[in-house]
Amino acid sequence: MDKIAVVILNWNGSAMLRSFLPSVVGGSKGEGIQVYVADNGSTDNSLSVLREQFPSVRVLELHRNYGFAEGYNMALRQVEARYAVLLNSDVEVVPGWLTPLYTYMESHPDVAACQPKIKDWKRKDRFEYAGAGGGFIDRYGYPFCRGRIFGEVETDTGQYDRETEVFWVSGAAMFIRLADYRDVGGLDGRFFAHMEEIDLCWRLKARGRRLVYVPSSVVWHVGGATLKKENPHKTYLNFRNNLLMLYKNLPTGELRKVMAARLLFDYVAIANFLFHAQFADAHAVLRARRDYNRLRKTYRADRTDNLKKATCPIPTGRMPICLLWQYYIKKAKHFPQLMTSQ
Questions:
Q1: Which of 277, 204, 279, 187 is nearest to 241 (CA)?
Q2: Confidence (pLDDT) at 225
Q3: H-helix or E-strand containing 215?
Q4: How do the residues of the chain divide into helix, strand and coil, expressed in percent and rounded to 5?
């Protein structure tokens, strides 16, 4: 059994493999460490690139594109290791990057998963959108990070250099106990992509497991390599999956109030997209709400199971704030301002 399995999910990403896999292979050496690439049915030359240029990497062929969530579920069923690292294909690492994460996890058995500091590959002094300095969530389901609130991304000046318990760790570089991953059912494959790691983390946190940001490990992430920020399909997945995540995990006493507020907020988002002539995004939010209403009944069993197993109904890191109000009305653009303007 491996000590650490670094698992990269790939779909038609041969250029990314050539650019970033050398750093992962070179930076992840050590006894019991194995790098895997799970290929989601690529139709480019990814497999030949892996065979010819990266013979030490173990390839898991999945034959078709299962998406991020189910792709990882299928890959991790084929891996036996104490820890798994879910690592995006567009992440650059340095030698020894795994050591602080492994050391922390070994000395904190109550922690299910952790993440490194995630910085922007294009602007090395800045945090990166997808994870930054560890993730939190507001009472209405809007995620944010230390170092990133909505589109406002901070320069890293060492302001988030302390280990901190968080609500969610990024799927771009998630170091997780494989036993914990399997115990809560892994990622929700029905999400396909987006919000799936936050949903997983919510289940872990609700069952009493801790999640931590470990800044002594640093990686650099390109971000947006699969779906660009302005892609309407990404808008659709984010809104739909966020609603499904809330339905799956919110305590009964909160569900009705939160969903009523979200109905209002989502229609404000639609109006904003229309005002800016982003018609495809407005339609994406409408479709997301429609499909949430259609799919909700298929998640009833998941909701029942999650609430039954929850030992911590309001996990650490779920903030009792309205992020929209803090950001747009109180102009709290950075995490410290957000905390002091409550």
A1: 187
A2: 42
A3: strand 210-221
A4: 45, 20, 35
pTM above 0.70, yes or no: yes
- Is 8 within 8 Å of 24 (Cβ atoms)? yes
**Rounded CA separation 181/174 (Å):** 11
Average pLDDT, the chain: 95
Rg for the chain, CA atoms, rounded: 19
Sheet strands (E) in 138-193:
143-145, 148-149, 152-153, 164-165, 173-177
Closest of 102, 136, 147, 139 to residue 205, by C-alpha: 136
As a whole number, mean pLDDT of residues 238-249 equals 98
pLDDT reading at 339 higher than 80: no
Distance CA 288, CA 332 (A): 28
Q: Which tokens hold the place of 316?
A: 């650490």
Nearest to 143 by CA among 90, 185, 187, 199: 199
Residue 188's φ and ψ, nearest 5 degrees, are -80, 105
Q: What b/e sequence results for 145-170 when a residue is b if at least 16 CB atoms lie within 10 Å of its CB, and e otherwise?
A: bbbbbeeebbebeeebeeebebbbbb
Do 165 and 212 form a contact (C-beta atoms < 8 A)?
A: yes
Contact 10, 37 (CB under 8 A): yes
Rounded CA separation 251/246 (Å): 9
Task: Provide the residue count of the chain.
Answer: 342
Beta bridge partners of 219: 118
- Whole-angstrom Cα distance, residue 323 to residue 144? 9
